[in-house]
Amino acid sequence: MNVLVVGGAGYIGSHMCLCLATAGHRVVALDNLSTGHREAVQWGELVVASLDETSVVAETLRRHEIDVVMHFAACSLVGESMQDPYRYYQNNVSSTLSLLMAMRDAGVAQFIFSSTAAIFGDPQSDQIEENHPRQPINPYGNSKLAVEMLLQDAAQAYGLRATTLRYFNAAGADPQGRIGESHTPETHLIPRLLRRAAGEDLSVQIFGTDYPTRDGSCVRDYIHVNDLAVAHLNAMEHGRSQPGFHCFNLGNGIGHSVLEVVKAAERAVGVPLDIPFGPRRAGDPATLVASSRKAREILDWTPRHDSIDRIVADAWNWHRRPAF
Ligand code: UDP
């Protein structure tokens, strides 16, 4: 297949390009490099463009005879989305609409979308199934839910084959250390711990000690970025034979508390990190864990790197010597 990876210079997008190329597909990355890295595009051509450059997008779809578009390019910081919602509706909703219209005009019929656990808002169950109510509590989640609704409508009206994949906490890196997570600023727990361990001047705290969890810190479902990429590959195959709109939650189905992640980081790094406790971060639900049952059954997907030690060790392998 000829696959366009929008956001292919970013963290998850670049691991997707690696996964697709390894599986024998032809990959083209499209990225405006606003947060992505040119050095991360090592598998396939890079087209430097934004989605609002509609003629470049249309030309890219036609010239490369694209069969499937995977869309990773988005703003994804909850706090920023509360401060500047227009930016989220512009980048996450309006740009995606432009892309979908260009795909329709070019006759590209399959779309795989990066969605998020944030569409569910405050969880109403221990493990979040696909049919959990979609009630986001911030503009970031709203913007992703808006696209999910757009895709449901597009599948009905235009026959778009659309799959939306709701990520829980993406983490880890290419085990060979060729690519990894590199955000500025970095807000996520695992890379912050490891960048601090690698000597960066970062003050990291454990946000909250009084959540109703086993140790008082928040519980999240950390999923290896390579396992996420394989789920996309399987979703692409599934969407070829099953038209319409599909949704899957992607996590391991295992929750780890912040304290447990800190311990795993200490094991990976080999020294104590002495991370202090701090106040809660606004907007954090106590527990977010996926039910991965549907993806396991229908996509025939099994996360291979599901231990927190493996995830953190691969991330550390990157952060101790990041190439970009
Ligand atoms: N967290 C923390 N200290 C940090 C960054 C994150 O304690 O410096 C906590 C955060 O409150 C959440 C968990 O780690 O409970 C995962 O946060 P992250 O930002 O990595 O992902 P999110 O769950 O927000 O998508």
What is the annotated CATH architecture of the largest domain?
3-Layer(aba) Sandwich
Uncertain parts = none
Distance between the termini: 29 Å
Radius of gyration: 19 Å
Structural class: alpha/beta
Q: Which superfamily, in CATH terms, is the homologous superfamily of the largest domain?
A: NAD(P)-binding Rossmann-like Domain
Instruction: Please summarize the sheet with the most strands.
Output: 7 strands, parallel
CATH topology of the largest domain, what is it called? Rossmann fold
Identify the CATH class of the largest domain: Alpha Beta
* Percentage of residues in helical conformation: 25-40%
In terms of topology, how is this protein built?
Elements: E1 2-6, H1 11-22, E2 26-31, E3 45-48, H2 54-63, E4 68-71, H3 78-83, H4 85-106, E5 110-116, H5 139-158, E6 161-167, E7 169-171, H6 189-197, E8 206-207, E9 219-220, E10 222-224, H7 225-241, E11 245-250, E12 256-257, H8 258-269, E13 277-278, E14 287-288, H9 293-298, H10 308-319
Parallel strand pairs: 1-2, 1-4, 2-3, 4-5, 5-6, 6-11, 7-10, 8-13, 9-14
Antiparallel strand pairs: 9-12
Helix pairs in contact: 1-7, 2-4, 4-5, 6-8, 6-10, 8-10
Bound molecules: uridine-5'-diphosphate.
Write a brief caption for the model.
The chain is of the alpha/beta class. The protein is 39% helix and 17% strand.
Overview of this protein structure:
There is one protein chain. The chain is α/β, with parallel strands linked by helices. It has two domains: 2-171 and 223-250, Rossmann fold (3-Layer(aba) Sandwich), CATH 3.40.50.720; 189-221 and 253-319, UDP-galactose 4-epimerase, domain 1 (Alpha-Beta Complex). It is built from ten helices and 14 strands. It has helices at residues 11-22, 54-63, 78-83, 85-106, 139-158, 189-197, 225-241, 258-269, 293-298, 308-319, and strands at residues 2-6, 26-31, 45-48, 68-71, 110-116, 161-167, 169-171, 206-207, 219-220, 222-224, 245-250, 256-257, 277-278, 287-288. The strands form four sheets. A seven-stranded parallel β-sheet has the order 3-2-1-4-5-6-11, sandwiched between helices. Strand 5 (110-116), helix 5 and strand 6 (161-167) form a beta-alpha-beta unit. The longest helix is centred in the N-terminal third of the chain and has 22 residues, at 85-106. The protein is globular, with a radius of gyration of 19 Å. The two termini are 29 Å apart. The mean pLDDT is 97. The structure holds uridine-5'-diphosphate. Residues 169, 187-189, 192, 204-207, 218, 220, 258, 281, 284 line the site of uridine-5'-diphosphate.
